[in-house]
Records
---
Amino acid sequence: MLAKKRIALVAHDFRKMDLVGWVEYNWRSLLKHDLVCTGTTGRLVSETIERKRATEGGASAPKSNIKLLKSGPLGGDQQLGAMIAEGTVDAVIFFWDPMSPQPHDVDVKALLRIAVVYNIPMACNRSTADFMISSPLFDRAYEPIVKDYSAYIQRKVEKEEEA
């Protein structure tokens, strides 16, 4: 992954304001990267960054580059998972709500799983997001080691052929 990364920002309903607060604090660092957001979260992130640019950034602050996906329950989580599998997302910051059942829990679980499969840095709470954004690797080129699953796939194919 390059020094300029594509970072996914996602938040469940009861965690959106937590993510907005985090974005308000880290907006300057986030402007150095391309962002991808699901649904309403993307609108809130965009409004927050533009408000901070207008009040604190002046003309020298770069404009934000945010790609908006669908809302999570309407397929945004799946869109994001596909982007991870295609290698077009470098990190995920997902403020998920562990206390509320989600109508799309299976999609959320699939998203978390695919991020682990592709060894994508992922923060699911503010503390981890703080550690991630303050890492020296956040603004540097970095090559993650992706596990080779070819032996697993071959065993699975062989088992299916035997059946």
---
Amino acid sequence: MTDTNLNDHMPTRKEVARAVGHKCLVSRRNFLIAGGVTTTVMITMNPGTPLAKEVPASITTYPRKLIGKLSSLRQDEPVDFTYPDEGAYSDNMIVKLGVEAGGGIGPKRDVVAFNYACTHQGGPLAGSYKADTKSLGACPLHLSTYDLTRHGILISGQAYQSLPQILLELEGDDIYATGIFGLIYGRMDNLHG
């Protein structure tokens, strides 16, 4: 590729790969065909060095699931739903906090969703929402408590990981779950239980 004016010629993926000495590992067509499933591809680690080698990597796409309406949420009243599937530890809650929160959606960025399983030993957190502190817990097993305004970070207790946060998208009045930030307790893979 000799043309340096991007307005005249936008380089293709293959041209960029050729220019930096790498081959394309997944075609756009194959990537789109695999949408919605876990796909294993080969990637090159340490390219251009004596340590270069191809290793397998997984590409995972979470399902997009309608979980509620923004207009139906009431402040400090959690609504339960399951995601990403109907398997073990897939119970979650969505809540309108009334204060801005990390990962929040809506006009006030105050609508968040979290998994109900404590990250320490999977204790049930359903029914433990505290409106005054915007927290979830304490877990009945070892008293872990999580701050829902700060991505579910641990406030106190035995847990060592933040509560898995369900990633949300707002489309008009519809709220969709689109992924999970963190690993659900009891699973090695959020999508395969």
